[in-house]
């Protein structure tokens, strides 16, 4: 079905737009791919990482899932935040989870975050023409502590102390640049992430719902959810 | 801003710039970056002034094509000075914004321009108006525009407070422009700011090396 849709799209590239704009009887979610147009964020602190995401999955204008979990475990202390096509990112995450699990058994020790990030990069780069996936890989390992790696569309890999991704991320670059400092505590990172995600969700139509947060450290993974009415509010005008 | 070729199918193209205006207690700050680029590849001017004075206490900034900017603001200046002579009093800020709005709305097919108008008048004090791409006119306490503005929506939402002092507002505007210039490759140069109050107009230019730096710079 995807192949047919792809074939139609290549032969008649404007068909999707024509259908949605000229014929209101056919809703656009019948022709649009499921996308995690989203806002995701990951921050390193001394001893671990904080990751966060919104919870909206859209097919065109319809919100297919308003309580999505975009924070996907890859291993005990390694998570990934997914943005882009929901199908692509789920498939890649499944592949990497398998590869990493196998690798960890071979090594007989917990895998490195850098290894997981490289596995993501390998898949995203090799199949870059077919995929639409922007992924943040974050976790804790004994060698380097908390780490955040960014694998954007195209398949680049770069480690950053703080990183944002997804369609909503453009709105919060300024906020992130001005509010992040090296040496924040875990609580400060959580506050920063919750605030940044709330700001992005306010402005980006493809992001919304609840804020899902997780902290990954030597002691394990701690997850929490901030519901819509509990999100930090800003002086709106 | 770019000297860009008219492609009327590409609506809503916002060109290389960052502009903003914000109200503080007793006045308004309006500002922009100073880069003019061609196609995002060549910087045609590093020090272009995008904050244009249309009357004694009314300034406007434009996001869009340079040609449109000059034509529309020239027309607006003329209309306003004529209006001011007829009324025998300085024009209202909303008059300036309405002149721009009329031009944008009547010529919406040909123009690709969005304006921010800021100023002070006797009737309503400091005001900021934004004329969006199709010709909608809206009054707001703070507004941002141009390609660089997408990166600072979060910062502006979080940091702007309605009753700041002049110094706080200048710092807020400088920070916002610096953050946008740091992330948008077609915004840059110096930060051109104008402070408008009842007593007068003050130009503040923050050169590139004096702009605030952030954690990764």
TrEMBL record, chain A:
Active-site annotation: 38
| Species in which this protein is naturally found | Amphiprion ocellaris
**So which domain of life are we looking at?**
Eukaryota
Task: Tell me which family the UniProt entry assigns to this protein.
Answer: Belongs to the peptidase T1B family.
Which keywords does this chain's UniProt record carry?
A: Cytoplasm, Hydrolase, Immunity, Nucleus, Protease, Proteasome, Threonine protease, Zymogen
- In the record, what terms sit under GO molecular function? threonine-type endopeptidase activity
Instruction: List the PANTHER family hit by this protein, alphabetically.
Output: METALLOPROTEASE TLDD, PROTEASOME SUBUNIT BETA
Q: Which GO terms describe its biological process?
A: immune system process; proteolysis involved in protein catabolic process
Catalysed reactions, as listed in the record: Cleavage of peptide bonds with very broad specificity
How does the annotation summarize its subunit structure? The 26S proteasome consists of a 20S proteasome core and two 19S regulatory subunits. The 20S proteasome core is composed of 28 subunits that are arranged in four stacked rings, resulting in a barrel-shaped structure. The two end rings are each formed by seven alpha subunits, and the two central rings are each formed by seven beta subunits. The catalytic chamber with the active sites is on the inside of the barrel. Component of the immunoproteasome, where it displaces the equivalent housekeeping subunit PSMB6.
Its annotated compartments are: Cytoplasm; Nucleus
Matching SUPFAM superfamilies, A to Z? N-terminal nucleophile aminohydrolases (Ntn hydrolases) (SSF56235)
UniProt-recorded name of the protein:
Proteasome subunit beta
- What GO cellular component is one of the record's annotations? nucleus
Give the function comment from the record.
Answer: Component of the proteasome, a multicatalytic proteinase complex which is characterized by its ability to cleave peptides with Arg, Phe, Tyr, Leu, and Glu adjacent to the leaving group at neutral or slightly basic pH. The proteasome has an ATP-dependent proteolytic activity. The proteasome is a multicatalytic proteinase complex which is characterized by its ability to cleave peptides with Arg, Phe, Tyr, Leu, and Glu adjacent to the leaving group at neutral or slightly basic pH. The proteasome has an ATP-dependent proteolytic activity. This subunit is involved in antigen processing to generate class I binding peptides.
TrEMBL record, chain B:
Keyword check for Cell cycle, yes or no: no
Say if the entry is tagged with keyword Transcription: no
Q: Name one GO molecular function term.
A: threonine-type endopeptidase activity
**Subcellular location as annotated:** Nucleus
Main function: The proteasome is a multicatalytic proteinase complex which is characterized by its ability to cleave peptides with Arg, Phe, Tyr, Leu, and Glu adjacent to the leaving group at neutral or slightly basic pH. The proteasome has an ATP-dependent proteolytic activity. This subunit is involved in antigen processing to generate class I binding peptides.
Q: Name the species this protein comes from.
A: Amphiprion ocellaris
EC number annotated for this UniProt entry: 3.4.25.1
Question: Upper lineage ranks?
Answer: Eukaryota, Metazoa, Chordata, Craniata, Vertebrata
Q: Provide the protein name.
A: proteasome endopeptidase complex
Predominantly, its location class is nucleus
Q: How does it assemble?
A: The 26S proteasome consists of a 20S proteasome core and two 19S regulatory subunits. The 20S proteasome core is composed of 28 subunits that are arranged in four stacked rings, resulting in a barrel-shaped structure. The two end rings are each formed by seven alpha subunits, and the two central rings are each formed by seven beta subunits. The catalytic chamber with the active sites is on the inside of the barrel.
């Amino acid at each position: 079905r995807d192949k047919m849709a792809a074939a139609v799209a290549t032969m008649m590239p404007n068909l999707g737009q024509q259908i949605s704009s000229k014929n209101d009887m056919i809703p656009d979610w019948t022709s649009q791919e499921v996308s995690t147009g989203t806002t995701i964020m990951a921050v390193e602190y001394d001893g671990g990482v904080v990751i966060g995401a919104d919870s909206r999955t859209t097919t065109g204008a319809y919100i297919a899932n308003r309580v999505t979990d975009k924070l996907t475990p890859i291993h005990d202390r390694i998570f990934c935040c997914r943005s882009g096509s929901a199908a692509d990112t789920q498939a890649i995450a499944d592949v990497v989870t398998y590869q990493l699990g196998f690798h960890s058994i071979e090594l007989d020790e917990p895998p490195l975050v850098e290894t997981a990030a490289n596995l993501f990069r390998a898949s995203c780069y090799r199949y870059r023409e077919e995929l639409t996936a922007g992924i943040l890989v974050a976790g804790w390992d004994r060698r380097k502590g908390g780490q955040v790696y960014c694998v954007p569309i195209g398949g680049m890999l770069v480690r950053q102390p703080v990183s944002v991704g997804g369609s909503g991320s453009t709105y919060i670059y300024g906020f992130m640049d001005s509010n992040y400092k090296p040496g924040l505590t875990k609580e400060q990172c959580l506050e920063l992430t919750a605030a940044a995600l709330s700001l992005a969700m306010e402005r980006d139509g493809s992001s919304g719902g609840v804020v899902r947060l997780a902290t990954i450290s030597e002691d394990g993974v701690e997850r929490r959810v901030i519901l819509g009415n509990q999100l930090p509010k800003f002086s709106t005008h | 801003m770019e000297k860009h070729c008219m492609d009327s199918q590409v609506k809503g193209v916002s060109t290389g710039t960052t502009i903003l205006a914000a109200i503080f207690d007793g006045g308004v700050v309006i500002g922009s970056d100073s880069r003019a680029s061609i196609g995002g590849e060549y910087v045609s001017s590093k020090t272009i002034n995008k904050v244009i004075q249309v009357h004694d206490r009314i300034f406007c900034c434009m996001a869009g094509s340079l040609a449109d900017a000059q034509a529309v603001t020239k027309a607006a200046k003329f209309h306003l000075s004529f209006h001011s002579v007829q009324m025998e009093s300085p024009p209202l800020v909303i008059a300036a914004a309405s002149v721009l709005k009329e031009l944008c709305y009547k010529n919406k097919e040909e123009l690709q321009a969005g304006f921010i108008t800021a100023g002070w008048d006797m009737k309503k004090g400091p005001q900021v108006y934004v004329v969006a791409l199709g010709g909608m006119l809206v009054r707001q306490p703070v507004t941002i525009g141009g390609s660089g503005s997408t990166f600072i929506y979060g910062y502006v939402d979080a940091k702007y407070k309605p009753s700041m002092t002049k110094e706080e507002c200048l710092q807020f505007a400088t920070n916002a422009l610096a953050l946008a210039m740091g992330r948008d490759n077609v915004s840059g140069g110096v930060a051109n700011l104008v402070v408008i109050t009842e007593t007068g107009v003050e130009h503040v230019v923050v050169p590139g090396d004096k702009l605030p730096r952030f954690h990764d710079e």
